[in-house]
Amino acid sequence: MAASSAQTCLDETDDGSFKRTASVHRDAITQASSKYPAVAGRYASASALAAEDLPRTHGLRALLRMRPSATRLALLTLSLGGLPNAARSLVLRGGGFSARPKVLTRTMAASSAQTCLDETDDGSFKRTASVHRDAITQASSKYPAVAGRYHLYISHACPWANRCLAVLKLKGLEDAIGVSIVHPTWEKTKPEVDEHAGWVFKSPEDPPIPSTAGHGSFKPKVLVPDSVNNAPTVRALYDIANDTGGKYSVPVLWDKHTSTIVNNESSEIIRMFNSAFNENGLCKNPELDLYPKHLRSEIDAVNEWVYPTINNGVYRCGFATTQDAYETAFAELFGSLDRVEDILSRQRYIAGDQLTEADIRLFMTLVRFDEVYVVYFKTNGKAIREYPNIMDYCRELYQIPQIGESIDMEHIKMHYFTSHPILNTYAIIPVGSNTIENLQQPHNRGRFNGVELPAQQTA
Length: 459
Hints:
The chain is an alpha+beta fold. The chain contains 14 helices and 12 strands.
């Protein structure tokens, strides 16, 4: 199509800065004017024009007849209500596509590789269950609890992986289990095969990388490459393990003896860390029990509603592709946050009077909420800092050294805002409200009775 001078505010950028074009039509209606006198019935606003009048006024209908470029199509998607799921998934992954009047077509062959961005059905986000579900136990002959055999692959940005790192540190397992930390910005994992974008390993010496759409330049302070398999991507680990699921997620708990994945389900990994390594001096805090018998029924009950409505609820809001799906998830999310606020107004922790896995699981969503989810996932009903009991609770958990050490807000923000081009085309990272500074403020959770954390053993 021939070039056109037609433009919108989306075209008004120069060197990356938005510069609004001045209005052109600047005549005035006055009582004394002979050209535009102030009389009734002569003038109409654009919104009052009937649809059939638009062509002759060269208005919206004429504008909508214009075929957008691929880049413009991605931008228009944000304001015009979304694309079909398959096309949306492709753009979300940063994949190639070509513009057509009513359809988007892939520019590469189909692949089984997927991410959480593909997990929508009828407009609702529905997370796929983890595939690798073996367990490390003290009595296991297949995966015995021994030092130096296992390695944990995580992203600081991922709340599921982050909970595993926090529990590893709380239990004092750093000497028994190695850790690798991926780059927060997704890259193409096999560009010669498909459009999948996912977790990649980088060294501190490597140069910054752009988003998959080619915008920005990103390099966090902390990067820990794969020292076990020298894999370039998390996808490569799954390939080594002969994975058939096609979702290359973190965390990954790896067995170095058999070169395979033991488990990639975070809720199960944290329970292994909690109990499997308590004997033979494998951990520094064997007395800490995050899943105590007397609270198990309460912990399970809390997890049962916190997971779908809060942990996964923010994703259900952010990745919804219909208004109804989004509003359903939104209502459930804030209903559950109100429930949390009420519980924490009466007791110190979410499942009782001592820190448990339920607190770790909940905290990892709460700590990301104000900096990321309120903006990125449209969970703007209320910020966590507006809930006095939840905010104070978050301060207490963050100020537990091992939990605070596991949080890297640079990674968290860099991942979300640079890895999904259709949600943030130019990979602009919001400045935010400085949640970390807020978390460092004094708390008053000590007004409730609580069981003190056992001290870690020293060598």
